[in-house]
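Task: sequence design from structure.
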């Protein structure tokens, strides 16, 4: 089969590979680092409820649409959009979805790598005993010291990008599959272990639990809704064509709806567990849930610093977080990489180095925004904050909305119904969601973000 038909040879032959790659893309810093800290900033329960609604009503239908678009063409996202546009006799401008996806992935990775670098740095510091016996405020001081230390952050940012380039260049199949098969279950096991710690050793589990699940409707502000929706896109890797790129390698006999549901479920589970680990520790150490981007690093490290064997457990934990970030980073490059190799016939290794190098360079801006360039602000935000804001609030929702409109209104009906292969009732439900709910939800957050 391989060798004769170039598309067939690119298809992953194991039916679990897509699932693993898609879950690897979805599960990352978004779940373990970002979810707890924004849930903390927006007051917990109300935010979590809106977030869960966004996952179910907007995320799942869109996950199915993106994957289908990729699989039906077996091309890079940009060329997939081009082909489907011309097949449907539609306006050529729809290819903007492909261009935007590449651009968005680029921007996300510039700051994502910096945070992943923090995780690597923490793994190292825990192992070497830097945090041993420190109390929460000393651990907090260390976090601040790290963000103020540009060379140290650049070192870890470089290490993370180098790893990303190395694994991506080897190909998603060879580079990723073997590793993920071991790492994802280990990460899960370690999270369960930490959950046990939060439950039984902090004495604050119920307090954390209530913070996450007690819904105080007065806290559902426009801003919280915007943040919850942005987070839903981010955590499921939606709106920037990552799953389109992976969908292109998905075997034809895999069920897209079933896979999409499993990925969304696993991703949500990981986020909820992370929250249930973080908040009880936050309370146990007298920290504030709304502490911001340092929340995971300060809270968990305070716990590791004061438990027997904490240095090793903490090391293992942050190594696994780095690996979860790595499998997401690869999917942030894939849309651009797939297109560059298709378009210019460039070899995968050279293309990865080029793209990774450019991302690394722009990422320096995010590193510096914590120290030397802390005063450099655009619209009142540092480079790091702005990159996160623009992707969460504008680029991902916009990309997602355009993809939904394209899949629901523009694309020939047969493409989606064939890829999804669902019963008529389920298909109609999906179609209603993709045509009406997704675009309406995104328009609502744009409206809120602009006029509120
Ligand atoms: N979903 C990833 C995470 O939660 C981040 C990501 C966003 C990856 C968009 C790919 C595309 O960490």
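Answer:
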């Amino acid at each position: 089969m391989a060798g004769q038909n170039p598309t067939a040879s690119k298809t992953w032959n194991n039916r679990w590979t897509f699932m693993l790659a898609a879950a690897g893309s979805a599960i990352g810093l978004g779940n373990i680092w970002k979810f707890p800290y924004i849930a903390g900033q927006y007051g917990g329960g109300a935010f979590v409820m809106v977030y869960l609604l966004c996952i179910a009503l907007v995320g799942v239908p869109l996950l199915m649409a993106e994957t289908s678009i990729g699989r039906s063409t077996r091309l890079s996202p940009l060329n997939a959009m081009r082909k489907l546009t011309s097949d449907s006799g539609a306006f050529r401008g729809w290819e903007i979805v492909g261009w935007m996806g590449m651009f968005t992935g680029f921007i996300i990775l510039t700051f994502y790598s910096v945070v992943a670098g923090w995780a690597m740095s923490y793994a190292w510091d825990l192992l070497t005993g830097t945090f041993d016996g420190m109390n929460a405020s000393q651990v907090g001081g260390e976090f601040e010291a790290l963000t103020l230390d540009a060379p140290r952050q650049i070192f870890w940012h470089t290490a993370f990008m180098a790893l990303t380039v190395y694994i991506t260049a080897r190909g998603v199949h060879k580079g990723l599959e073997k590793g993920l098969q071991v790492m994802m279950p280990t990460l899960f096991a370690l999270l369960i272990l930490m959950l046990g710690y939060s439950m039984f050793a902090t004495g604050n589990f119920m307090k954390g639990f209530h913070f996450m699940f007690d819904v105080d409707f007065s806290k559902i502000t426009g801003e919280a809704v915007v943040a919850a929706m942005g987070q839903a896109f981010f955590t499921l890797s939606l709106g920037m064509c990552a799953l389109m790129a992976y969908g292109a390698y998905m075997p034809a006999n895999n069920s897209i709806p079933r896979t999409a549901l499993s990925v969304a479920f696993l991703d949500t589970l990981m986020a909820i567990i992370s929250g249930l680990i973080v908040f009880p520790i936050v309370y146990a150490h007298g920290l504030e849930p709304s502490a911001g981007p340092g929340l995971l690093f300060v809270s968990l490290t305070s716990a590791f610093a004061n438990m027997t064997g904490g240095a090793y457990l903490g090391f293992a934990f942050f190594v696994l977080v780095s690996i979860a970030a790595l499998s997401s980073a690869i999917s942030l490059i894939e849309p651009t990489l797939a297109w560059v190799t298709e378009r210019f016939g460039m070899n995968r290794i050279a293309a990865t180095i080029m793209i990774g190098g450019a991302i690394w360079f722009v990422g320096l801006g995010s590193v510096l925004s914590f120290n030397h360039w802390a005063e450099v602000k655009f619209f009142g935000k540092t480079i790091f904050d702005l990159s996160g804001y623009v992707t969460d609030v504008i680029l991902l929702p916009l990309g997602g909305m355009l993809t939904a409109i394209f899949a629901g209104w523009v694309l020939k009906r047969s493409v989606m119904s064939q890829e999804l292969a669902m019963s008529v009732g389920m298909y109609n439900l999906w179609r209603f969601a993709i045509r009406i709910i997704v675009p309406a939800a995104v328009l609502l957050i744009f409206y809120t973000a602009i006029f509120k």
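The two ends are 56 Å apart (CA to CA).
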